[in-house]
Amino acid sequence: MTTTLLLIQALNGLQFGLILFLIAAGLTLVFGVMDFINLAHGVQYMIGAYLVAAFSAWTGNFGWALLLALPTTLAFGLLLEVLIFRHLYDRDHLDQVLATFGVILFLNQGVKFVWGAAPLSVPVPEILSGSVEIASGLLYPVYRLAIIAAGLTVAALLYGLVNHTRIGMLVRAGATNAPMVSALGVNIQRLFMVVFGFGAMLAGFAGAMVAPILSVEPGMGDNVLILAFVVIVIGGIGSIRGAFLAALLIGLVDTVGRSFAPNLLRLFLDPAAASQTGRAIAPMLIYIFMAAVLFFRPSGLFPAKR
C-alpha cells in the first residue's frame, strides 16, 4: 500500500465518479422533476459511445465525432421521449419500469443489428495520447485527465444553469412541486421534454468520453445504470449537488476499495484468506456505503425540498 498507488487510484476514482455524475445528473432530474423511472437511461450512455465510434470512423477525428454525437444523442433522446416516454408519465411506476426495460431490450438488439455484436474500439485522440508526470516518477494518462477536466467543467456549467438561469429555476420548481408550476402557466410538457433531452445528452456525452478507454459493446449501459441509481439515492432525488457529491464518493469508494480492501484485511487475516475475502467484499462496498448513508439520512445527502 503506497502513496503513489493511492494517488493513482484516487484519480481513477475521481474520473469514474465524474462519469457517473454525467449519467446520474440527467437521471436525477428526470426522476425528480417528472417522477418518471427511466431504466432505459443507460441506453443513452451506450448510444453516445456507439455514435462517437461511428462518427470517429467516418471523420477520422475524435473532436468532430464528439461534436456530431452530442446533438445526435439529444435528437435520439427527444425522439424516444415523443414516441414512447411521454405516454408513460401518467402511468404508475411499475408500468414505467416494465416499458423502459422493454426499450433496453429493443435498443440492445438494435445496436447489434446496426453495428454487430463484436465490441468496437475508438482510438484515443492523438493530441491527448501519452502520459504526463503529475508527481516525481508518477505518470498518468493525459486522456484520463481530460475526462476529469471535462467532467468538472460540465458540473460547473450545470450548476450555473440550474441555479442561475430561468430554465434552471423552472427545473428546480418542477422538482419541488410540478403541479404548481403547471398551474402558474408553465408548459410542463415542454419542460419535461427539455429536461429529458438534456439528461439524454449528458448520458451520451459520458458514453462518448469513455469510448476510447472502454470497449463499445451492446449492454454497456446496463451495469452503469445500477450505479447511477445508487448515486441519486445517496445524493437525494432531484438534487444536482447531491448527485455530484455522491458520484465522487461512489467512484472513490469503489476504485480505492477494490485496490486496498485485500491489503487492509491482511491486518486481521492470513494473506490467502484476505485476498479472497477482499475480492468478495470490494464489489459490495458501494452498497454498504449506501445503506450506511440511508440509515442516517433516509432521504439522501441533499434531497430536493418538497
Summarize this, please?
By secondary structure, the protein is mostly helical.
Provide structural commentary.
This protein has 306 residues and is mainly alpha-helical. The protein folds into two domains: 31-217, no CATH class; 219-306, no CATH class. The protein is built from eleven helices and two strands, in the order H-H-H-H-E-E-H-H-H-H-H-H-H. The protein has helices spanning 3-34, 41-59, 62-83, 93-115, 142-164, 166-183, 188-210, 220-235, 240-265, 271-281, 285-296, and strands spanning 131-135, 138-141. The chain has a two-stranded antiparallel ribbon with strand order 1-2. Strand 1 (131-135) and strand 2 form a beta hairpin. The longest helix is centred in the first third of the chain and has 32 residues, at 3-34. It is globular and about 65 Å long. The protein starts with a helix and ends in a 10-residue tail after the last helix. 42% of the residues are buried. It is a multi-pass membrane protein. One of its GO terms (molecular function) is transmembrane transporter activity. Its main location: membrane. It is found in: Cell membrane.
